[in-house]
Automatic annotation (TrEMBL):
Name of the protein this chain belongs to: Glycoside hydrolase family 30 beta sandwich domain-containing protein
Upper classification of the organism: Bacteria, Pseudomonadati, Acidobacteriota, Terriglobia, Terriglobales
Ranges that cross the membrane: none
Domain Glycosyl hydrolase family 30 TIM-barrel positions: 71-403
Keyword hit for Cell wall biogenesis/degradation: no
Family under the similarity heading: Belongs to the glycosyl hydrolase 30 family.
Pfam families cross-referenced by the UniProt entry: Glyco_hydro_30, Glyco_hydro_30C
Amino acid sequence: MRSRIGSCLLLVALAVIPQTLRAQKKATYWLTTPDKSSLLQLQKTPLNFTEPSGSNPTINVDDKQTFQTMDGFGFALTGGSAQLIMRMDPAKRAALLQELFTDSGNNISVSYLRVSIGSSDMNDHVYSYDDLPEGQTDPDMAKFSLAPDQKDVIPVLKQILAINPRIKILGSPWSAPLWMKTTGVAKGGVLKPECFAAYATYFVKYIQGMKAEGIPIDAITIQNEPLNEKNTPSMVMLAPEEADFIKNDLGPDFAKAGIKTKIVLYDHNLDHPAYPLSILRDPAANKYVDGTGFHLYGGTVDAMTEVHNAFPDKNLYFTEQSVTEDRGSGTMDIADPVAKIIIGVSRNWSRNILLWNLAADPQFGPHTNDGGCTGCQGALTIDGDHVARDLAYYTIAHASKFVPPGSVRIGSSDLNTLPNVAFKTAAGREVIIVANPGDSSQTFNVQYHNRAFTAVLSAGAVATYIW
């Protein structure tokens, strides 16, 4: 009788303990340190959840607070990146793509890519899909052709999609075909008003052409950096022009063609949130718009929340940021970009994060002349078949490897000394990314459901914790 009573009491005691806490007694974590002694390395000793105690700073993770659903993390697959990858030995190329786009072992599970519609400044030459001799026009896009992408971009994308068919792809143009522009040259200029309809047809042909190749384009932006006329190629498009183009040409053409590809505004720095807000306030344009894309070369990241608060039914995307390191220093300042971009951008409602760009050669090429980026370091430095993994690689990997598409950002304490962001995955796991941008080691607690583990993060280090 006594043993039965004891068993019953034990069962009652267990019943009042949440099932999640019985199953989640340890957190594993992956660490990157600035001295490179640990590079996205799984640490051997898990961290135990215990009763909260001590006076350490505490990050409280609250899964009852939910925010945006994540679409993914990744890079721009520029034409130059694709060229370098396609020149690799086929077996080594295949191994690299497996590392980048699968989630097993030490692979980093990149889930989102950005491609240029036509060339970007990280191509070895300028092109569009409807280049004509000077003086000629093609308003019906009869000469439209994806041929310039058939050598590198399309084959790489097909290999990637064979590995991960669910990867999301964003397309962004750096310029319209030159015959559509007021200047007729690659650098700067604006789209002629009489070419708005032809340019909308250009987008339709692009999306249909890529679909025919087996490459779905999930979203497009109207113009990369529409307020920047210094790149080669580039094109200025002010907010009223973008609004007119969307509501009168692109939106109706997409609807007529049955295209579901999302239309994303702006695609430029956070110092001009008035640009997308002015378009979103136009009901005729707003109905075709999925959301707004931002870069962080200017402005502050809380401008994303400003736009979200004004139009909470529209999505936010982070479409570009270059992250570079001093190769000669022997150290990797990873805490800063993780804190500012991975953590800061996620905490301000972005559904994705894309860095610029996937790969470059040791001389920061290929790039265009007189307006190409001469200092854009890739996440990978590819020199023939040799691949080096740089700061941007580890910055994204600390999120992409652990936060798959469909994960939801959840609440976590906003500590200035320990920037962090937390997610719940679709599989029910909790993930928190923590950076220590300070100059001394920090000991802290992570609390979840009235239990906590204690962690130590050295100066300049980043860790992703999972339970």
